[in-house]
Amino acid sequence: MTTPFALHAARIVERRLEAEDIHSFVTRFVDPEVRRKFTFAPGQFNMLYAYGVGEVPISIVSDPADPTRLEHTIRIAGRVTAVMTGWQVGDVIGIRGPYGKGWPLDSARGREVVIVTGGLGCAPVVGVINYIFRRREEFGTLHILHGVKTPNDLLYRERFDAWRLHPRTRVYLTADQPDKSWHYRVGVVTNLFDELVVSPTAVAMMCGPEAMMRAAIRSLRRKGIAEEAIFLSLERNMQCAFGLCGHCQLGPLFFCKDGPVFAYPQVKRWFGVSGI
Amino acid sequence: MAGTGESRAAFLLPKDRVNDLIDLLWARGFRVVGPVVRNGAVVIDEVRAVQDLPVGRRDDQEAGVYRLQEAGGDLLFGVVNGPGSLKGIFYLPREPLIEMRRERGGFAVREVAEETQPVAALGVRPCDLAALEIQDRVFIGGRFRDTHYERRRQGLLSIVVNCTRAAPTCFCSSMGTGPAAPAGCDLALTELDGRLLVDVGSAAGEELVGTLALEVAPPADVAAARSEVDACATSMARAVDRSDLPGLLFDEVESPQWDDVARRCLSCGNCTMVCPTCFCHAVVEVPALDNASSQRVRQWDSCFSYEFAHIAGKNFRPRIRDRYRQWLTHKLASWIDQFGTSGCVGCGRCISWCPVGIDLTAEVAAIRARRGGTPS
Question: Average model confidence (pLDDT) for chain B?
Fold first, then answer.
């Protein structure tokens, strides 16, 4: 098969409930040849296919050191993902990929890393956080800043608590509308930057609502971090994943092949323009 | 350039021998396509004989207007263009790409690929050949190649007809895509009284001319053909000022003109359907009724559709203003960053087929007039 739309059968080998409506699936390609050839970088995504239903782009959260065991985290967002969360161990699904450009991990080596996320949590940054933990000595201090609207939106509370225990890792949480159980900061994510002590040579990686990212960029700039060192994972409608279907455009960029991770200067011109 | 034919002699094809050319092409294994009338408009479809061409017809076009008329006479190519172009020949409006078939414990995947036959495009306009070259860049010019497009596109023989009359909606002169045939087409025709001047642009074209044993054209015919095409070039009523065009549109993302055009635009998507370069498509799942198999189908989509930039929980372009701005800015500006060429060939179809007569050339001029200032 020569068409770039060709997909490969993969079997679900592990299924895990992360939070309400959020599941992680570990998959293995059925064809050993496909398994052998597949490689990816953190931040890249695959198109996942449910037979008779359709495809969606989902970022890969597992470690690139073992591409035979691909993990994706799926949140029910629409028609196709609703079906996918019913996948069981042993089911055969379709996968094609990997697509797009991932996080700048090579240039981040030896530097401090600031991760900013918000809302319902972001699979793309979970992948990069895990990547850094497995190679902890290669990176400087890791700062994880996460903002939610209400404590209920903090879907991976145990995970954040576990991340705190890693060496040279700081976790900063805030909620806009806290309740009595909340013992972290109160307010929007940019408030967390008051506590953040970070070198201007740090690399920032973020994912979440655009308004949050815009505010976070201003805060990062005030810390002396260059625009070129700020990276964003962005979302658009994607149907082909390789720049032909046209749905994911922003100005001259195709999110599927030029992104989904962008250096801020690439998107700055359009960032915040309404309806672009 | 074949259209001006400086280096090679031009030939004459008498109109009563056009069927010989069509027969020869079919005999050589080509599927011959060209302008034919369907439902009162010219589209590109199979041509078996000269009578299939819109002989004696003429098109009246204006913003929001398209009418075919019986003009009489024996003009084979009196119609400039219609809603159809070569796009629909190589990039099908709807096409299955792969098929999954249920098997025990999973499914098998195969590519859906029908037999293809090389196409001979007879009597297509220079702007449409330019549009095809642009679609080539999109579908087969990058790292990911659309194999369905590529298979159909292979072996194309192009017999272009130079324009000697511009429709009022035409502006190819300003886009640099016509009215003379571009270099690289196999043959270029110019219609004269009772005969066609034939310029040769390739070895394949030369071989056809030799097989048909066409006579060399007298210099007077060559001169007449050139002057008609030249006159056509200067006759065009519409134009796009391309100076700093990407810069203009990128700078003017908040131009009040977008709101102005959005009050008229119906967001129907006609402009994108008739555009010979618009390539955006949806990829949809079509399961068989018995669920024993399921296909992934590619079908033309339009950036004017409400769902186009929609993801679960967010629509990036909810307003018509957003979608018109995306279309025009993509076509004339970001296309250049993406593919090294403008996405517009000046064929004017989007103007004629817009139900409310929105004119791309007028919108660009209005944005330019309002540049950097507030509306008067």
Answer: 95
Chain B contacts of A94, Cβ < 8 Å? Answer: 100, 107, 109
Q: What is the pTM of this model?
A: 0.94
Q: Side-chain half-sphere of A150: how many Cα atoms within 13 Å?
A: 3
B170 vs B131: CA distance, rounded Å: 14
Residue B93 at interface with chain A, using a CB cutoff of 8 Å: no
Helix (H) or strand (E) holding B20: helix B18-27
For the record, the structure tokens of A66 come out as 């073992």
* pLDDT, mean over chain A: 93
Q: Would you call B230 helix, strand, or coil by DSSP? A: helix
* Higher-pLDDT residue of B155, A149: B155
Residue ranges of B 225-284 with Cβ closer than 8 A to chain A: 250, 253-254, 279-284
Output the furthest CA–CA distance in chain B (Å, rounded).
74
- Per-residue CA distances from B96 to B113, B114, B184, B252, B362 (Å): 8, 10, 32, 39, 38
Half-sphere exposure of B321 (CA within 13 A, CB side): 13
Residue B336 Cα distances to A29, B137, B144, B333, B344, angstroms = 39, 11, 19, 6, 10
Average pLDDT, integer, range B304-321: 94
Report residue B122 as tokens: 């007879």
Alpha-carbon distance of B96 to B88, in angstroms, equals 15
Of chain B, the end-to-end C-alpha distance in Å amounts to 46
Residue B17 in tokens: 């021998």
Mind listing the pLDDT tens digit for each residue in A49-79? 999 999 999 999 999 999 999 999 998 889 9
Pick B107's closest partner by Cβ from A77, A92, A245. Answer: A92
**Phi and psi at residue B157, to the nearest 5°:** -110, 125
The DSSP letter of residue A239 is S
User: How many residues can be counted in chain B?
Assistant: 376
Write the burial class of residue A137 (CB in 10 Å: 0-12 exposed, 13-18 middle, 19+ buried): exposed
- CA distances, A127 to each of A60, A79, A103, A139, A264 (Å): 7, 25, 10, 15, 20
Contact criterion met (CB < 8 Å) for B317 and A240: no
Contact predicate A224/A251, CB 8 Å: no
pLDDT in tens, B285-311: 999 999 999 999 999 999 999 999 999
